[in-house]
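Quick one, tokens below:
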């Protein structure tokens, strides 16, 4: 930690520092320590960093420092690809500005009543955080005016590019005429993004942070081969065994999100879905519950989950293997943040084996293949947890009244305390004993090529079809080439040689030029004569045809 910059040493406003300290931040992340000092100097910045690295604070704190609370006009603008990310960034800025009174931050996005937004804007807002489409709507209505804008930020610029906001981004930036500061943050830097930086930034400083530990070091990645019909039961068992209190589950389709959420609720698991067909009010309610911890499981599609950044996620379950391999990194990157160790679980069927291999290759990682916990293992795990909890209660609480209650019940029912404890434990650790059939994946190449004793060839019994245990070329039973090409004693087979090594065929089979004849032992000269005769017949036939054509 000694090489990281502390917030209290960065020179930020005391009111912001107080809020940041209350949140629990002490050291800056690499992108924050690189971007905050440069932005506070008033220079343009290009920040390249992955989601979950603290970019909001990297541009939010310098923006708050530039705001004049006495000026009620718009002074800061942040563009985000999705409504969720806009709401999240606005909330973060409000937390940072907790002790900076008179600073108003407003998220503007599609799906919310625009009249309500217009009313809020007329009341005076210094910072807006919005999606490009809705910001453009307000600029056309002249309800957002950029005359006094001091700083503009493009957050997740590559995502906005992928979602088709390039023209809106360029149009918005092109209408900001006054002197202002521009910051652009993106996980990748495609050519269109670089063109935007060239056109709308001045001598921007590139701050690049490569988060290598995103998929390997901080996250345990487990893989289970499960039939599609058993995925739901497997999902529930993983949640139960690993005691996932806050978990994200990703599906590829909206219909699967709805179906899985309903089925998990039927298993007494608090779960809700999140996808594009839901109203904004529904989405807001679900996200509020998940952030507060009252919702255990959030099930989402990749598109709906863009911009979701919730701390304390215990694990991520890939209910479906992602259709786009890059989504895998974004999915599992939502756990294991802030130095914590996260877990990801991928459920696949055997037909998706090669897609898993492609994920491993592109992401430069390895998914650990595991077997699902058995019913007995889940039973034992839950029993141990309940007994530990009971022991902790005995150590910390006064249980005298409860002991007397148990004694009374013993006399009335005739049951012993041991029997009562066993019944209580049974009720607390009930497990759905549904059978789950796991599939057997194809063996990897390295597993096929080597036997159990490590010899090359891949025979499970250790016997090699091509090489013997001492590494000699084999195929026959004695280490020599097999009978199709060699005899057992090592001489050539009877196709061309006798057992004593002499040639089998006499001169009838070979002509003077030493070339082998066919099965009727015709000589080379005989075959040459036949060939010449065919050629001569062909020449005569060709001449006759030409003569007939002239005669015609």
């Amino acid at each position: 930690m000694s090489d990281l910059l502390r917030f209290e040493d960065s020179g930020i406003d005391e009111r912001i520092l107080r809020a940041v300290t209350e949140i629990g931040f002490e050291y800056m992340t690499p992108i924050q320590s690189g971007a905050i000092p440069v932005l506070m100097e008033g220079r343009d910045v290009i920040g390249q960093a992955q989601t979950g690295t603290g970019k909001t604070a990297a541009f939010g704190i310098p923006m708050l420092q530039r705001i004049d609370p006495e000026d009620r006009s718009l002074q800061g603008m942040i563009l985000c690809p999705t409504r969720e990310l806009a709401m999240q960034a606005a909330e973060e800025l409000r937390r940072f500005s907790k002790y900076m009174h008179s600073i108003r931050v407003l998220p503007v996005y599609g799906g919310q009543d625009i009249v309500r937004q217009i009313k809020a804007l007329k009341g005076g807002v210094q910072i807006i955080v919005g999606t490009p489409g809705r910001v453009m709507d307000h600029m056309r209505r002249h309800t957002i005016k950029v005359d006094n804008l001091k700083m503009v930020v493009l957050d997740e610029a590559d995502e906005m590019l992928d979602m088709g906001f390039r023209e809106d981004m360029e149009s918005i930036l092109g209408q900001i005429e006054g002197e202002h500061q521009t910051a652009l943050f993106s996980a990748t830097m495609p050519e269109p993004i670089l063109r935007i930086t060239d056109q709308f930034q001045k001598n921007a400083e590139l701050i690049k942070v490569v988060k290598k530990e995103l998929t390997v070091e901080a996250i345990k990645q487990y893989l289970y081969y499960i039939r599609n019909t058993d995925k739901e039961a497997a999902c529930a068992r993983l949640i139960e065994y690993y005691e996932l209190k806050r978990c994200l589950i990703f599906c590829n389709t909206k219909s699967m999100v709805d179906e899985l959420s309903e089925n998990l609720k039927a298993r007494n698991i608090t779960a809700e879905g999140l996808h594009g067909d839901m109203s904004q009010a529904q989405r807001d309610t679900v996200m509020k519950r998940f952030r507060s911890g009252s919702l255990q499981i959030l099930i989402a599609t990749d598109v709906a989950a863009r911009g979701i950044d919730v701390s304390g996620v215990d694990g991520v379950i890939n209910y479906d293997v992602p259709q786009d391999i890059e989504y895998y990194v974004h999915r599992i990157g939502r756990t294991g943040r802030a130095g914590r160790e996260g877990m990801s679980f991928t459920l696949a069927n055997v037909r998706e084996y090669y897609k898993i291999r492609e994920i491993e290759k592109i992401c430069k990682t390895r998914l650990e293949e595991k077997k699902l916990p058995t019913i007995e293992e889940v039973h034992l795990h839950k029993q141990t947890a309940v007994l530990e909890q009971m022991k902790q209660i005995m150590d910390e609480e006064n249980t005298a009244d409860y002991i007397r209650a148990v004694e009374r019940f013993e006399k009335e029912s005739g049951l012993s305390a041991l029997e009562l404890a066993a019944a209580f434990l049974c009720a607390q650790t009930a497990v759905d004993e549904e059978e789950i059939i796991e599939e057997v994946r194809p063996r990897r190449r390295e597993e096929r090529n080597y036997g159990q004793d490590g010899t090359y060839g891949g025979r499970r019994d250790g016997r090699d079809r091509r090489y013997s245990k001492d590494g000699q070329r084999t195929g026959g039973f004695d280490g020599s080439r097999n009978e199709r090409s060699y005899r057992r004693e090592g001489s050539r087979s009877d196709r061309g040689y006798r057992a004593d090594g002499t040639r089998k065929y006499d001169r009838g089979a070979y002509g003077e030029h030493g070339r082998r004849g066919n099965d009727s032992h015709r000589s080379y000269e005989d075959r040459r004569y036949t060939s010449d005769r065919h050629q001569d017949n062909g020449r005569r036939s060709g001449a006759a045809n030409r003569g007939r054509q002239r005669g015609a």
